[in-house]
Fold this protein.
Amino acid sequence: MKKIILFGTMMLVAACAASNVYAQKFALIDMEYILKNIPAYEMANDQLNTISKKWQNEVEALQQEAQNLYKTYQADVVFLSPEMKTKREAEIVAKEQAAQDLKKKYFGTDGELFKKRESLIKPIQDEIYNAVKEIATARGYAAIVDRASAMSIIFASPQIDISNEVLTKLGYAK
């Protein structure tokens, strides 16, 4: 019995020692908070919103033209010859296709808005990433979690949030 207790105690001591050796430091950042405090990001977002609205209006104008052509076609259909019907239907389809193509060009997965967002936002994100990486390396953090995108974090102590330190490192002192 003494051997079992002694063995259990030794295992408990070994487990505690091992957990202390492998304890890792981690920190949190709030990416939304950081981005809101970077004026270049706000300006880039405003620029993207302006461009997006302009392009959306262009697409909607083409869609409206297609609807108008269709309404006119419906009103005139009884007076049109079969050749004229075919011609008008082709015009409507072409206008609808042009609207879809323009929408895809501007808002598709590889569209102009995506490319514009890449050119404006990615440099800011890269700068933040590099600052976080430098802080993590200097302080020995094994992981830094973004609390804005980590939905499973229910509570985190404000003491481990290094968002203001990242802003300071980027030159936006708080």
Notes: The helical segments are 2-21, 31-36, 39-76, 82-107, 112-139, 163-170. The mean pLDDT is 85. The chain is about 70% helix and 5% strand.
